[in-house]
């Protein structure tokens, strides 16, 4: 029974990780190899010396393949006749190799009795000397000398004292005898005795005194003769550290070989192990020595065995992967070894068998259930492992098994040892995700038990305590913002998530509350436990005081995750902190409450914030800060946006105190006209003191360029309506002085009082030259009536005025961005409300565009209806749009946006655009089927996007005046057979650029030819040239063109929905640039145009080409809309409907800017300025036009008065164009600046007229 118990306690146990000389492979390959080598040793040594091979062999095999084990088996086979000495080259790499070999070898041979007795050495001066082998070794190495010294013990202090007493006593006796008188008395005799005994008495007194101090000085100490024993010391002195020379080494080895032969000892086998692990230089050095001593003649009774790994050995000669290095390594091996034996690596059956044998050796039969699985996963992870690695792995498992016993499953211990590196690199992530199981996940599941036990091994805690550690640490890492941590990673997959999260939050330091909020705000999982966590966080957050009057982002994130009751409680408590803030600031107070209000509205929280507001009376300066913050806010999100913002939060001040405060700021510190303007309609506040103070300042001329703007603005606001003109003004000289100062000051002219000075000058009867760049204001829509939009679908006159105002502002500022074309806050709010007004549809605005176009087209004989498609890309604003629109729609490469397909109507005679006959906008659903999935080719034309070309063409023919000829123009995308078969009528024609290789019917109905072939073979009708304007990658040049045209009959497509349709007869015009005029690296201009117009003469063909060239107008329109100022793609709106409305208005505004520039460029005097300007504006143009003309004839307006060209010339001059031919023609920016200045002057003109 006791034996069995002891047997059980033997496991688990460690395995020896050194060669044991036993072949554990099933095939016995190592044992067979060892016997083969042994036979070679015996056979080679039995031959005559002349016939023997060099006594050196190589044993090649990869690291861990068992080379050392083969050597052990070889030693066992040859143990009777051969003595094996193993030299670890790697272990002695820091030593001098030859010295180290000789010293270790000789010492071992002496110790084991192989080298015994005496040997002879040569001494200086000739002759020999008989010495032992040890002394001979010292002599050879010439590194040590031996000195023998003896240490003798010191005589004890007691003996010294006794010696002195013995010597001194006779002397003192003699002295006593000498001093003794002849006749003696008893006391002289006593004195003589005392003198004689004096040394003894003194010695006894000294001993008594020493003994009293230290009891070690007893009788034994006094009677001791010696203090120490006799010792012998041998000292060594290093004389030389040099290596033995090659000759000395060779002679020594020969002496050993001869001694072995002479004494009949076992032959010597030197094994140079681990040589391939040495650094490159050391390998070369040792290899050289081995080759020198053993590869050629060698020694009769000495063998050399070199185990090595050829791959690692190659590192000493260069890059082991290089073919040249491999060849060089083979050369050295072949040069050194006459024979190289190879140790084969284990095959899979051996591998599995060896692992099982070693596992059983370590664990016995106690872990048989897990053995096969552990064997399998080890082989999967380490397919090329060797025996040494297997032993190391099993020993690691043994160590952990001894530590944890049965607390952790054997399979999990094995798994940890196998994947330890991956796990410990990032334990939390690896344990939770199970990524470390890559390659074995089908065998091992990352279940909760595996996670717990691996965590216990990682952190060294009990399995039960380790249950939540990985997830807990991961959540803590998320809170602390560690890289690659996502709070949602395990929220849904780990069943413990909610519980662990709650525990983490309870244990976290309250100082981390903000980090906790930011982290959990990203958590998408919802549950009762998580809600409870948020409620606890809210309680902790409310205990904190606020440092500023702001609405912290932490509170915003917190509110989004609470229930309604908790939300109301948090908002109420936060409001109390804000309203009772010690360092109360009016501006911050408004901004904070406004931010809370917006947050509630945007996130649709069920909170009545208004009911929480407390009335608060503040000082005047605080109230002013509050008003200014309120004026700067955007109240578009409120239902009642007409209420002035400052009234929302019940902040007030004493009216009289405010009046006095503002008055006291005059004259130098007053800059609060905005406050007076805001409170003007509030009967609670009156400013009699301020008005009187301002009147006094003006009357006393106590104004300057710094305060005139605020003073006069306030004066106009406070003066009663009956006081017109204003009773107090400045004197004329002072007005001129201030006017000049402001023109050169560089400040915002609109707010500086500049206009007030101009009005005063005009009131004094002086002419005024407005040479400073000016800005416009809200009065635009009263005056700018260019192509005024009218529609029955917008019945509210206020909305119609707002529509025209937005369009007018876009024209003047050449921008579609609300913040750029609306300078006043009120204008911005009005624009946003209009665009987001659900009662104003895109169709209503479009009807206004069409109505205006029809009005301008009336009476015209021929209209070109040019259609094209462009993409409006809003990908940069997709996140903003997704807040209000679930799917904004995509265009092109699946980017957010809309397609725009307008039909631009152009007068055929003047080539001036007059409006739009239709505009289509649409986009695609991200979930839409592909063309292949829809079988697009065979879909009816009405279901395809290309139907827009037909639909827009039909709309143009219906909307435009019936008596006018309409020519529908399109680029290659419009080359659709159904377009030719459905659109043309007597006064509706097509002019389309061809792209398809269509079949054309010839005279024989059964014969057809491709359109391209037909036109290439057509007769050359004429050659002509025209000027090509510069463009992208193209220089300005004169293009020489070849002209061909033919009447053709197009056959219907053989496939698709138009299959079987009757053929269509029309004309084809082919125009191609001659190669002689085409620049190098540019393609020649080539158009193939299909038209229903009759083309039988060269003039008719060139006229059609001229009409087609008007297509550049719609391309220019897109450029103006998207890039040249309007920047429609930068508009920051949040809904698709608002964007589509803005696009329609922007189209009209961009067209108006183009008309103004085209009228100037074309010098068209037929087009009346009445289509652009009102009668009052034309009257002002006459006045401004005279001042715009210079003294020279060149600077006179050359155009017919009240023509569009005449008006455009004046606007260009106002935009700083010099009118000289040497200056380039004015562009869009020049016209923008000119319109700015014109409408500023018109504003003043309206005031004084």
Keywords:
single chain, 1249 residues, alpha/beta, 11-stranded mixed beta sheet, 12% strand
Topology:
Blueprint: H1 2-9, H2 29-46, E1 56-60, H3 67-77, E2 82-88, H4 97-111, E3 118-122, E4 128-132, H5 133-141, E5 144-151, H6 157-179, H7 186-213, H8 219-223, E6 231-238, H9 246-263, E7 267-273, H10 280-295, E8 302-308, H11 310-313, H12 323-336, E9 339-342, H13 348-363, H14 368-381, H15 387-404, H16 410-425, H17 427-433, H18 448-459, H19 469-479, H20 497-507, H21 513-521, H22 528-542, H23 553-559, H24 564-579, H25 586-602, E10 616-617, H26 620-631, E11 651-652, H27 655-665, H28 673-679, H29 688-699, H30 708-718, H31 732-743, H32 754-763, H33 780-783, H34 797-813, H35 818-821, H36 825-835, H37 842-857, E12 862-867, E13 870-873, H38 878-882, E14 890-891, E15 895-907, E16 913-922, H39 931-934, H40 947-959, E17 965-970, H41 977-982, E18 988-993, E19 999-1001, E20 1008-1010, H42 1011-1016, E21 1022-1028, E22 1037-1050, E23 1064-1073, E24 1086-1091, H43 1098-1109, H44 1112-1122, H45 1136-1162, H46 1175-1188, H47 1204-1214, H48 1228-1248
Parallel strand pairs: 1-8, 1-9, 2-7, 7-8, 10-11, 12-17, 17-18
Antiparallel strand pairs: 3-4, 5-6, 12-15, 13-15, 14-15, 15-16, 18-24, 19-20, 21-22, 22-23, 23-24
Helix pairs in contact: 2-3, 4-5, 6-7, 13-14, 13-15, 14-16, 15-16, 16-17, 16-18, 17-18, 17-19, 19-20, 20-22, 21-22, 24-25, 25-26, 27-29, 28-30, 29-30, 31-32, 34-45, 37-45, 44-45, 45-47, 46-47, 47-48
């Amino acid at each position: 029974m006791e034996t069995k118990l002891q047997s059980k306690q033997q496991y688990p146990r460690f395995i020896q990780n050194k060669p044991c000389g036993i072949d554990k492979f099933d095939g016995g390959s190592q044992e067979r190899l060892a016997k083969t080598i042994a036979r070679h040793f015996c056979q080679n040594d039995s031959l005559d010396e002349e016939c023997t091979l060099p006594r050196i062999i190589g044993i090649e095999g990869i690291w861990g393949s068992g080379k050392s084990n083969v050597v052990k088996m070889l030693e066992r086979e040859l143990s009777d006749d051969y003595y094996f000495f193993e030299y670890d080259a790697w272990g002695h790499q820091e030593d001098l190799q030859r010295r180290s070999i000789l010293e270790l070898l000789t010492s071992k041979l002496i110790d084991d009795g192989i080298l015994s007795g005496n040997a002879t050495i040569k001494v200086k001066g000739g002759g020999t000397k008989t010495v032992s082998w040890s002394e001979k070794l010292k002599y050879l190495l010439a590194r040590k000398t031996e000195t023998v010294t003896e240490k003798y013990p010191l005589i004890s202090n007691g003996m010294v004292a006794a010696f002195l007493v013995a010597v001194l006593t006779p002397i003192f006796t003699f002295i006593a005898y000498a001093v003794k008188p002849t006749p003696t008395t008893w006391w002289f005799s006593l004195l003589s005795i005392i003198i004689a005994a004096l040394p003894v008495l003194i010695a006894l007194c000294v001993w008594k005194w020493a003994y009293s101090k230290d009891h070690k000085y007893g009788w034994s100490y006094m009677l001791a003769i010696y203090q120490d024993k006799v010792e012998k010391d041998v000292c060594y002195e290093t004389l030389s550290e040099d290596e033995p020379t090659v000759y000395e080494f060779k002679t020594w080895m020969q002496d050993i070989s001869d001694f072995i032969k002479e004494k009949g000892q076992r032959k010597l086998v030197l094994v140079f192990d681990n040589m391939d692990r040495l650094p490159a230089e050391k390998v070369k050095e040792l290899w050289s020595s081995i080759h020198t001593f053993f590869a050629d003649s060698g020694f009769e009774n000495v063998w050399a065995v070199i185990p090595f790994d050829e791959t690692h050995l190659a590192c000493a000669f260069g890059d082991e992967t290089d073919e040249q290095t491999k060849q060089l390594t083979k050369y050295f091996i072949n040069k050194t070894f006459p024979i190289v034996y190879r140790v084969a690596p284990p095959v899979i059956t051996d591998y599995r068998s060896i692992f099982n044998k070693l596992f059983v050796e370590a664990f016995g039969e106690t872990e048989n259930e897990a053995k096969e699985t552990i064997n399998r996963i080890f082989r999967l992870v380490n397919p090329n492992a060797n025996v040494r690695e297997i032993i190391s792995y099993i020993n690691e498992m043994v160590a952990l098994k001894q530590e944890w016993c049965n607390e952790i499953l054997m399979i999990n211990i094995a798994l940890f040892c196998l994947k330890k590196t991956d796990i410990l690199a990032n334990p939390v992530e690896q344990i939770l995700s199970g990524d470390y199981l890559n390659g074995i996940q089908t065998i091992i599941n990352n279940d909760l038990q595996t996670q717990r036990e691996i965590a216990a091994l990682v952190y060294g805690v009990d399995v039960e305590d380790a249950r939540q550690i990985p997830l807990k640490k991961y959540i803590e890492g998320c809170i602390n913002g560690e890289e690659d941590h996502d709070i949602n990673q395990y929220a849904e997959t780990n069943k413990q998530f909610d519980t662990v999260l709650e525990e983490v939050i309870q244990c976290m330091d309250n100082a981390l509350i903000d980090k906790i909020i930011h982290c959990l705000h990203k958590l998408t999982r919802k549950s009762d436990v998580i809600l409870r966590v948020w409620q606890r966080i809210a309680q902790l957050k409310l205990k904190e005081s606020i440092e500023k009057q702001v609405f912290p982002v932490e509170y915003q994130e917190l509110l989004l995750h609470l229930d309604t009751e908790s939300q109301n409680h948090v908002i109420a408590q936060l409001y109390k902190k804000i309203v009772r803030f010690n360092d109360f600031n009016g501006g911050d107070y408004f901004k904070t409450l406004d931010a809370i209000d917006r947050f509630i509205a945007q996130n649709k929280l069920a909170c009545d914030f208004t009911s929480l507001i407390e009335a608060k009376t503040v000082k005047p300066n605080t109230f002013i800060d509050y008003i200014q913050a309120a004026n700067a806010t955007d109240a578009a999100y409120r239902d009642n946006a007409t209420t002035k913002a400052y009234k929302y939060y019940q902040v007030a001040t004493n009216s009289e105190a405010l009046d006095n405060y503002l008055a006291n700021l005059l004259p130098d510190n007053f800059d609060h006209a905005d406050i007076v303007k805001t409170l003007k309609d509030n009967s609670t506040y009156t400013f009699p003191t301020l008005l009187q103070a301002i009147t006094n300042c003006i009357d006393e001329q106590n104004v300057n360029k710094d305060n005139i703007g605020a003073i006069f603005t306030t004066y106009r606001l406070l003066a009663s309506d009956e006081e017109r003109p204003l009773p107090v003004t400045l004197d004329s000289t002072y007005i001129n002085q201030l006017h000049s100062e402001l023109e050169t000051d560089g400040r915002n002219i609109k707010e500086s009082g500049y206009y007030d000075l101009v009005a005063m000058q005009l009131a004094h009867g002086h002419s005024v030259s407005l040479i400073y760049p000016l800005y416009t204001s809200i009065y635009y829509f009263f005056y700018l009536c260019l192509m005024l939009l009218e529609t029955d679908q917008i019945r509210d006159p206020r909305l119609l005025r707002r529509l025209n105002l937005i369009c007018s502002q876009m024209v003047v500022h050449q921008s579609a961005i609300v913040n750029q074309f609306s300078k006043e806050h009120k204008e911005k709010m009005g624009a946003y409300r209009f665009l987001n007004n659900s009662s104003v549809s895109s169709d209503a605005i479009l009807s206004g565009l069409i109505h205006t176009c029809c009005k301008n087209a009336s009476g015209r004989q021929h209209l070109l209806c040019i259609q094209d498609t462009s993409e409006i890309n809003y990908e940069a604003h997709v996140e903003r749009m997704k807040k209000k629109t679930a799917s904004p729609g995509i265009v092109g490469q699946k980017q957010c946006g809309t397609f725009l397909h307008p039909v631009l109507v152009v007068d055929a005679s003047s080539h001036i655009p007059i409006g739009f006959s239709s505009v289509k906008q649409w986009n695609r659903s991200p979930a839409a089927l592909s063309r292949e999935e829809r079988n697009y080719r065979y879909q009816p034309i009405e279901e395809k996007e290309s139907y827009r070309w037909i639909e827009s063409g039909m709309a143009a023919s219906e909307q435009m005046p019936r008596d006018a000829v309409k020519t529908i123009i399109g680029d290659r995308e419009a080359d659709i057979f159904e377009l030719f078969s459905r659109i043309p009528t007597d006064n509706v024609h097509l002019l389309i650029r061809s792209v398809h290789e269509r079949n054309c019917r010839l005279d024989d109905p059964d014969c057809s030819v491709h359109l391209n072939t037909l036109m290439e073979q057509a007769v050359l009708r004429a050659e002509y040239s025209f000027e090509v304007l510069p463009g992208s990658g193209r220089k300005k040049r004169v293009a020489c063109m070849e002209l061909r045209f033919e009447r053709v009959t197009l056959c219907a497509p053989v496939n698709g929905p138009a299959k079987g349709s009757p053929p269509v007869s029309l004309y084809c015009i082919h125009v191609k640039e001659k190669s002689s005029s085409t620049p190098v690296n540019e393609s020649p201009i080539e158009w193939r145009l299909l038209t229903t117009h009759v083309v039988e003469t060269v003039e008719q063909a060139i006229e059609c080409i001229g009409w087609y060239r008007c297509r550049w107008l719609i391309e220019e329109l897109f450029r103006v809309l998207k890039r040249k100022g309007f920047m429609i793609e930068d508009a920051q709106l949040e809904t698709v409907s608002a964007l589509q409305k803005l696009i329609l208005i922007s189209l009209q505004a961009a067209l108006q800017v183009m008309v103004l520039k085209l009228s100037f460029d074309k010098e068209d005097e037929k087009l009346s300025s009445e289509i652009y300007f009102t009668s009052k504006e034309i009257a002002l143009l006459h006045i401004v036009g005279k001042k715009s003309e210079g003294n020279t004839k060149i600077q006179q307006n050359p155009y017919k008065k009240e023509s569009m060209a005449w008006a455009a010339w004046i606007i260009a001059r106002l935009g700083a164009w010099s009118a000289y031919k040497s200056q380039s023609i004015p562009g869009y920016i020049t016209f923008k600046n000119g319109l700015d200045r014109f409408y500023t002057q018109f504003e003043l003109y309206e005031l004084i007229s």
